[in-house]
């Protein structure tokens, strides 16, 4: 079952751009709203959400339908169309870390025991760019292109932990208003405290913040320069943690992150780029 994530996000903004094309801005904002809501929206709903004349929204929708970026249901409501997939695929194909993540499992020659995800930071969200779903049911299906609040997800917190506190404050200046369960930080100070603990121990924890019954361990992925460029997480059913509180799964998350970092040229022992440029994962990730 795909999870519906309610959106509190604002319309797409383009910082540092002095001149925007109004029609393009409106079309992108419309697409962003539908993508975040993940449910069909009527013309009236879109008109209200975008605060635009109904005739303008009608024209935008018809144009986007003609290009395949929207699809119209029999009742007239609109959904994201298949045309966006080529854009998503082009984006993912241009991310080296996603390519290396997929190559990592190809080299191992076996599917992971548990669900393993790879995400990058996109504003306040963790944007999932690669996924290896386990056959074990989670009650949650991770998909490429899925977004979750970075301060709730395991992979997101693994990345946020390595940002300066000031940047975290700026990034979440509007607050931590989006929650998917009863768990997760509500205030920025609580988040900063959690991120400090994450940074100290080397891994993050999502204890049912994204979905009740789902637990994950996250770890940062570094590039050749040593910067954190992505986060991985191993996601499991919390009931399967065991007496060791998931030690095996925690180790798996760290191993995948380290193997992927080596493939990107990072030398963990020296804390700098590996001499070979890209390291082979070798054996199990």
Summarize the structure.
This protein has two domains: 22-81, Winged helix-like DNA-binding domain superfamily/Winged helix DNA-binding domain (Arc Repressor Mutant, subunit A, Orthogonal Bundle); 87-273, Beta-Lactamase (2-Layer Sandwich), CATH 3.30.450.
How many beta strands in the DSSP annotation? 10
- How much helical structure, as a percent, in the residues? 25-40%
Looking at the structure, the CATH topology of the largest domain is Beta-Lactamase
Q: What is the H/E string?
A: HHHEEHHEEEHHHEEEHEE
Tally of individual domains:
2
Q: How much of the polypeptide forms β-strand, as a percent range? A: 15-25%
Arithmetic mean pLDDT: 83
Strand order of the largest sheet: 5-4-3-8-7-6
Question: What form results from the Cα inertia axes?
Answer: globular
The assigned structural class equals alpha+beta
Count the helices. How many?
Answer: 9
What is the chains' assembly state? single chain
Uncertain spans: 1-17, 273-285
CATH architecture of the largest domain: 2-Layer Sandwich
Could you tell me the radius of gyration in angstroms? Answer: 20 Å
Biggest β-sheet: count, sense, barrel?
6 strands, antiparallel
Question: What is the first-to-last residue Cα distance?
Answer: 28 Å
What is the CATH class designation of the largest domain? Alpha Beta
Could you state the CATH homologous superfamily of the largest domain?
A: GAF domain
């Amino acid at each position: 079952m795909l999870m519906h994530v309610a959106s509190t996000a604002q319309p797409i903004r383009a910082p540092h751009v002095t001149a925007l094309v109004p029609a393009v801005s409106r079309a992108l904002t419309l697409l962003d709203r539908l993508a975040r809501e993940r449910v069909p929206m009527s013309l009236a709903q879109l008109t209200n959400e975008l605060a635009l004349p109904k005739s303008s929204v009608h024209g935008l929708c018809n144009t986007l339908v003609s290009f395949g970026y929207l699809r119209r249901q029999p009742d007239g409501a609109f959904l994201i169309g298949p045309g966006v997939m080529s854009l998503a695929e082009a984006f993912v194909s241009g991310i080296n870390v996603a390519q290396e993540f997929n190559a990592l499992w190809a080299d191992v020659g076996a599917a992971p025991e548990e669900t393993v995800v790879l995400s990058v930071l996109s504003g306040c969200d963790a944007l999932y760019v690669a996924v290896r779903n386990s056959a074990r049911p989670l009650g949650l299906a991770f998909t490429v292109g899925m977004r979750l609040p970075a301060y709730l997800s395991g992979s997101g917190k693994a990345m946020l932990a390595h940002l300066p506190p000031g940047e975290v404050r700026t990034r979440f200046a509007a607050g931590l208003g989006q929650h998917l369960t009863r768990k997760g930080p509500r205030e920025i100070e609580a988040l900063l405290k959690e991120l400090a603990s994450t940074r100290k121990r080397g891994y993050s924890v999502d204890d049912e913040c994204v979905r009740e019954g789902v637990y994950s361990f996250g770890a940062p992925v570094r590039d050749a320069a040593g910067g954190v460029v992505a986060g991985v997480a191993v996601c499991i059913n919390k009931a399967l943690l065991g007496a060791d509180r998931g030690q095996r799964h925690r180790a798996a998350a760290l191993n995948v992150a380290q193997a992927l970092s080596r493939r990107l040229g990072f030398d963990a022992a020296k804390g700098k780029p590996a001499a070979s440029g890209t390291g082979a994962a070798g054996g199990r990730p």
